Amino acid sequence: MSIAAISYCHSFGLKSSTKNCLIFVDDSNLIYPVGSNTILYNIETKIQKFISSSSKSEEIICYAISNNHKYFAISERSEKPVATIFDMFSLRRKKVITLPDTESKEFISMGFSYDAKMIATLTGTPDWTAYLWIWDKTKIVASVKCIINIPTQMKLKKDLTNTNAQTTVSQDSKVLIANNMHSISSASYINNSSLNDNKFKSSKSTYEKSKSDYNQNILNAQINEISINPIDQFQILVIGNQIFRLYKYLEGTLKQVPLPKIENRNYLSHVWTCHGQIIVGTDDGHILIFENNGDLKQDINNTVGPENTVVGVSSLMLFKNSLMAGCTNSSIVLYERTSITTNINNKNINLQNCEQFEKVKEFTLNTEIPTSVISLSINPSEDTIVCATSNNQIFSVMSVNSEFKSDETRFELLSQPFHYGKIYSLDTCIRKPLLVTCGSDKSIRIWNYLENTNEITKFFNDDIYSVSLHPSGLNILAGFSDKLRLMNILIDDLKPYKEFNIRGCKECKFSNGGQYFAAAYRNCVHIFSTWSFENLCSLKGHSSKIQSIYWSLDDNYIITSGIDGAVYQWSLKDMIRGECKRGSESFLKSCLYTSAICSNDCKKNYAVGSDKTLKEIQDSQITKELISDVVYTKLAISNSGTMLFVGTITGALRVVKFPLMETKVCEYQEHKAHSDAITALCTSADDKYLFSAGMDGSIYMYKVYDRETKITQRKKEEILSDEILVSRTDAEEQVIMLSDLRKKVEDLKMENEYQLRLKDMNCNEKIKEVTGKLLQEIDSLKMATALIKSEKEKEENKFTEDINQEKIKHLNEINELENIHREKIVAEFDKYKALELKTSELQEGWKNQISLLNEEKNNTLKELTTQYDIKLKSKQDEILKLQSDIKKLHDEFEETIKETEEDADIEILELKHMYEKRLKDEKEIGLKLKSENGIMKKMFNSLQNEIDSHKIDISKMNVEETKLHNIIKNLEKDISSFKKEIQERDETIRDKEKRIYDLKKKNQELEKFKFVLDYKIRELKNQIEPREREIESMTDQIKEMDNELEHYNKINSNLELVIDDYKLKLNASEKEVNLEKENVLAIASTIKRFKIELSECMQYIMEPKLLKQHIKRLYHKYCTESEKIETIQADIQQEYFRQRDYLEKTISSLRKKVKKDKEFNRTSNYNFMKENITLVREINYLRRAAKKNQFMNNNKNNITLPKCLPTVQQTISVENTS
């Protein structure tokens, strides 16, 4: 008994409500949210890594990444706002930022500084406060409350009364009027013309009733984004609905920077340029470029389509010299930076710092519904762009180069099309690795969970509530709002096969064997046969809607649960007779059951519902009831019966300890996957994978590790089939296409062979010319080399003579230099001795001078000391006077200090009260930290041991890293060589393109001679016509044979009907045999009674009269009836044996006939196939003969043609291809 282990394997989906939901980490890795987790997706390998959120997290709100791509921040909604900063290389948490003293629950936006040392965060409602952090120390540098400039009450009254005169209404009053102060949208913009008089009246009444709540409702959903200036890390920008504010960190606080008058708009997105400019997008289709001081530099109208309709800007991105804007109508607009030129004295001069953006290209995304592009991102090497839409789709462009602006470049789906909206149902099959889902987007999607791909996506006009996959993986059962449909799975489509009149089927399920399927309609479950589509039985017992259907492994039982609080187990053993018995039942009015399953032995049922408990039901009684803190929504049990999985309303998946314990508390392991309730759970047939779907539109796939199953069982691999259903029309079209393509291939082969021959001829001629030229050049070079050799020998002789002369001169010069050097050494030695004598004399003179100077020095010192003593006395007198002056000034200074201290004390007291509160809170935190410190020390010791072991592993990894570096160097060398080869091949391609151009010219000349050859082609066609007639006669024969085949098939069907009649007769005879057996039993019972009465008559042996009376009574009672029965029985037996012999003879004769007919049909079909094959061969032979005759006739006719004209065979093939 243990808890099974599961791990995340793959996920399908996107949480588009997260701000900045798409971010590139490096050139190939992308980060995006799915449910409650963050996915690190590799574009090249298509492998996902999961970054799980914290245990108390409710939802992922926004992302932020540093400019150097080293750090990554995730904001999560919790009891208090939390932001976690990760190291992107190790994917480990670096710091966690929280705000304990706030009423808001999340940071709605974040932004790193350029050096990644600081981060700006913005809390949501009701605080709306911006914080500037040094995140490495979790220290708040400054904070400011972003209060909105609310229009005055008088201004609002004027706006309400003078609506016809004004052209625009302030955004705050619009939102208040349109939504009646109940919900305010951040992206709503309402024109004055669309507002009715009723709305103005309701707004006046609400204004008079709730003046106090006005400011709070206006603040809701106002601020959208926050960021830090890349040039100045102490400057912050905040944008939102009618908000555009710059804050500067000065004197320990964030102070608002005064800006010029800016028009009130709903600012949705923004981006900073490298020069500190701000580019902002609005919901009314304007892209505004501001300077750092708030001056408007450029106003761009974001127009889309041929009609130039203005569309809102929901996202912005800068790269290279371009600006990309994501719009609210499934389109992306590309702008390019251009410099302004002016004419001065008829000369074009580029003005510096005067650049503007101009529209270059427009992209439209292929989406099912019009959506807005909410996020744009580009990788560091700027060659791949990705974007996310509000309907949970990810699009990408992989090659951003010079051809990016061409019409051919389009945004395509990055991986697969995901669901948008709720997912209602999910199911798997046995024979294929397929997963089917349906959702509120009116689509059915089939996924391959081994290849992690989307096989088929099909949209419908009606709502789809439930879906089930046949165990073979070839059929789908789907519950639509109008009907229940059984569909075939084709290569790329779902084709309806059968429809059932069941409306709004919320639950349907195939049996494990696939021979039955069950469908719920309101409070009844109908069971149908998959092959005959008969309604075998209907399960009636629920009083309200049924929520779940579950088949047992052997398909003998079915478990249903409903909103009425009932769980029923139905026995289907007698379903062929139309009888379905209710085996066990459990009824609890206080619980609305959502899911129910049973164990493998069908003795225990498990159910979950609205009462936050997991129940075990046995023999119609609740034996175990495990309490939980969350409402359970779905249940799933493994096919081995050893693992139990539970889905919750919060989106978490729990693996429960199974079998259930006697305790009331449930033991489990929780895995946070979805951000909303789990709507479907199921396991694969081999219990290796677990699948879950949720209300958030995401699908999660987990790997399951059962600790109790044997290793041999886990290693067994199931044989998966590759069968696919194809419609007959598609198959016939493909056969026709293949035949046409084969003909084209044969024609192309002939053309290519002829062209190759021509090329060989040309090449041989060129080779001969080149070889002749080369031989001539070789002869001339041989003559030149002979002359050069003779000149070389002459120059060598001259060179040896010159060298000998130079050697003699060199020896003479060396001897002369040696003699001169010796003379100089002797003279220098004499000079050295004279200098030694002079130095000794000078040293004696210097000693005498030093003694005289010391005496003079002592005398001068005595004189100077007397002079400076006199000066000291005068200076001391002056110092005393100055000290008295300083005392006077000090008294004046103390008076001023007292005055200032009194003012400062008042301020200090106020600050003291503030900081004392903080000290108390910090002391309490300190006590908690001390208690946690002891625990952490123990943890530290254990972790230190682990660190030592990890260091050993790291040393090993470093060795491997060096090896990998060497491999990388070798691969880089190979890459350089391959690049050279590519360049060479490009050159050869250019040469071939030139040749192709020449050949095209020749083709144009050949077309001129086409008219000459038409006459000959007509003659050849006349020769082919009789052959075609023969082919037609052969086809007629084939059709007659097909008719004969149909006749034989009809005979076979008639014989089958005769066999069915005989089967019915056999059943009747069996019934008669049963009646005879009953008669025999009745006779045996009468004989027993007769014997008993005879034994009673033996008492009257001594009294003959009484004995005679009793025997007469027995005779009248038994003898008359027995004679009739014996006569009747004899006739019946004779008739029975006669009919039996006749039926047995007829059955044996019919069997012989069926065998003979089968053998005859086989032989006839085989003969037909042989004849068809021979006919096809003859047709092919005749075609080849026709081509040969055509070729020979063309050669016989002597027509003078130019050299560039090809053969007749080529022209015929060219005409056929045209």
From TrEMBL:
Segments annotated as WD repeats: 416-457, 539-573, 671-712
Top-level taxon in the UniProt lineage: Eukaryota
Identification of the protein by name: WD repeat-containing protein 65
Record keywords: Coiled coil, WD repeat
Pfam families hit by this protein: WD40
SMART domains xrefs: WD40 (SM00320)
The organism of origin for this protein: Piromyces finnis
Gene3D superfamilies: 1.10.287.1490, YVTN repeat-like/Quinoprotein amine dehydrogenase
Coiled coil: 872-910, 940-1079
Lineage, highest ranks first: Eukaryota, Fungi, Fungi incertae sedis, Chytridiomycota, Chytridiomycota incertae sedis
